[in-house]
Amino acid sequence: MELHGALVASPGMGHAVPILELGKHLLNHHGFDRVTVFLVTDDVSRSKSLIGKTLMEEDPKFVIRFIPLDVSGQDLSGSLLTKLAEMMRKALPEIKSSVMELEPRPRVFVVDLLGTEALEVAKELGIMRKHVLVTTSAWFLAFTVYMASLDKQTLFKQLSSIGALLIPGCSPVKFERAQDPRKYIRELAESQRIGAEVITADGVFVNTWHSLEQVTIGSFLDPENLGRVMRGVPVYPVGPLVRPAEPGLKHGVLDWLDLQPKESVVYVSFGSGGALTFEQTNELAYGLELTGHRFVWVVRPPAEDDPSASMFDKTKNETEPLDFLPNGFLDRTKDIGLVVRTWAPQEEILAHKSTGGFVTHCGWNSVLESIVNGVPMVAWPLYSEQKMNARMVSGELKIALQINVADGIVKKEVIAEMVKRVMDEEEGKEMRKNVKELKKTAEEALNMTHIPSAYFT
Ligand code: UDP
User: Fold this and answer.
1) What is the pTM of this model?
2) 81 lines ligand 1 (CB under 6 A)
3) Is the dihedral of CA 273, 274, 277, 282 positive or negative?
4) Which atom of ligand 1 is nearest to the CA of 386?
5) Distance, CA 365 to ligand 1 centroid (Å)?
6) I need a labelling partner for 38 at 20 to 30 A (CA). Which of 151, 176, 314, 417 fits?
7) Among the listed residues 284, 138, 122, the one whose alpha carbon sits nearest the alpha carbon of residue 211
8) Which pLDDT tens digit goes with each residue over 48-89?
9) Pairing between β-strand 355-360 and β-strand 377-379 as defined by DSSP bridges
10) Residue 347 near ligand 1, beta carbon < 6 Å
11) How many CA atoms lie within 13 A of 451 on its CB side?
């Protein structure tokens, strides 16, 4: 019987990229005959163009379908997690009918952490094996499932008295809004629901690998620690699921990088949806100018209230004037810097020999892409679990310096100092060495399959 997998990704490139890579992995390493990937999106044409032509080429074994979602009437206030969970809830009937129509019937189902309600749908459809792909760290999975294992009272008590969640067998997670967890009741409730649904899956795949998160993965394997919280549901590190750089890709940024010295350029990007306020955007511009370093900066129009707002902003376009940048900035930096509007070929930039540092919002995909290309980082988290990722890369892994975002606007002097420390100083050299070591472990992990070979048969 044909082995067919149905994979579903919630909106956002940060979810689409690893789900697509997992699909390829199942075809190439796990004997799948066919994989159908469903991408839930509020903007099909944009998603298509971002995924890139290599993935859109016809392959009868690897089919990509879009599930369009109209968010115009939707309340898009609240955290990104609640927004995306709500969107996935709205998409459930369409997910169900799309999966139901598949031929041959899929035997394996995978959905990312934001769409765990679809596990029940897969069960109703009689799909044998249902999985969750965690597109972020094992540590975040630990946070989510542990939170769900506590009743609300215990959770609130732990958060407000200690200011952190003490997860068995791995690092505690500081909860920045611990003073008043009740204010975030909707977000906490969604997280607890997700954590509870995760353990209804037959298995959980995480975009990580042993050397990256040894302790946390060890805790999941330990029945006395997170193994107990998972109630026997196996956790498989399957990472790094990272889109490989496209050889020979033509792009103005890459042409420009070709002309720069080795490891001399700082790449600055806040992911697929991150935006800064007007004041912060200006401060960053001045900061970059102050470093005197070469840079590539993916610039988005400022957003005042919600740093993730541009994820759903359809008004953005590539021709919008850059009049929100400081007067004369583009002119003054034209010999050392390149400003790219909205979107750049990130994998190819990070893989380029001229790129020497990455100022990143620490979305998990960006972190992994930096590691697989051996590029040290300046960690500048904005929202979601990015602060946890920033803490991991700067603390345990020592491959980044973390900007303190708690004090409001990050001043140009601080930005310049951080960039210089990573690019020029001894501690930066140490980080570069560490990240190149980690890169080797990522390559080793790529050549291994962590899911037992007989698992799907
Ligand atoms: N990305 C890109 N070009 C850009 C911005 C983002 O190719 O200008 C890709 C990036 O390489 C990564 C994904 O979009 O694969 C963003 O995922 P991440 O988890 O880093 O952040 P998110 O966008 O989910 O916040």
Assistant:
1) 0.95
2) no
3) negative
4) 25
5) 6
6) 314
7) 138
8) 888 876 666 678 899 999 999 987 777 766 788 888 999 999
9) parallel
10) yes
11) 21
